[in-house]
Design brief:
By secondary structure, the protein is of the alpha/beta class. It is about 40% helix and about 25% strand. The protein has one domain (about 5-115, about 170-215). One of its GO terms (cellular component) is phagophore assembly site.
Length: about 220
């Protein structure tokens, strides 16, 4: 089976936005590939003025939350987050004595992320505006207002980009369906997707946790 490859455009996010951005995009994609019976749930973002749809499943929500939390803590500069959907197939071993299961990936989404400095932190790092003695009160107010305005502008810009990404996901998911396997090969109540990243800056502890919590590597199909 050929694996369909879909890549989103690169996203530039501040660290405090990373977890919520991942949750929005991962849930939006997973819901579009939740074959068979799946209840939906409309969700308002905790950080952005955005509503999106996710599977009404504790198992799915727990897995997305787990990975979004881990990645948001471990990704330092940038990474590509991969969301792979797989089909379970029975495989007969040598001499027909044993049967095992293989996972065949039929679709993979890539989410490239770049972590950018927080505007307020960047401003402090660069030294900010030097105020003359006796002018600290008015100066601080003006400087804070400027920082708040820039933060709001950046937040609104990212919201607009996320809306376009969600629209792209809906369009692509509905337009590419010929490669989707039958729903009965997805394992019933078990998960039919895996989330991973190629982040170049995992700490040793984060990497160990990731390896221990991940099943064996999926086949490439």
């Amino acid at each position: 089976m050929n694996c369909e490859q879909i890549a989103l455009e690169e996203l530039h996010v501040e660290r405090f936005q990373l977890k919520e951005v991942l949750k929005i995009l991962l849930h939006s994609i997973i819901f579009q590939r939740a074959l068979g019976e799946c209840r939906l749930r409309d969700v308002d973002s905790e950080l952005f003025d955005i509503s999106y749809v996710r599977c009404d499943s504790r198992l799915v929500e727990a897995r997305v939350e787990e990975h979004a939390e881990a990645f948001s803590s471990a990704i330092e500069r940038g990474a590509r987050v991969s969301l792979a959907f797989f089909e379970r197939r029975a495989r007969q071993a040598a001499f027909g004595l044993f049967r095992s299961e293989e996972r065949v990936v039929w679709e993979r989404w890539t989410i490239p992320l770049v972590v950018v400095p927080n505007f307020a932190q960047l401003h402090r790092h660069m030294g900010g505006a030097q105020m003359p003695p006796g002018a600290h009160g008015a100066g601080r107010s003006t400087e804070a207002d400027s920082q708040d305005e820039e933060s709001r502008r950046r937040q609104a810009s990212l919201e607009a980009v996320l809306r376009r990404r969600i629209e792209f996901i809906l369009t692509v998911a509905s337009g590419r369906r010929e490669h989707i396997p039958p729903a009965d090969g997805l394992g019933g109540e078990a998960l039919w997707f895996e989330i991973s990243t190629d982040a170049d800056s995992w700490s040793g502890l984060d990497l160990l946790k990731q390896l221990l919590s991940s099943p064996p590597q999926l086949g490439s199909g």
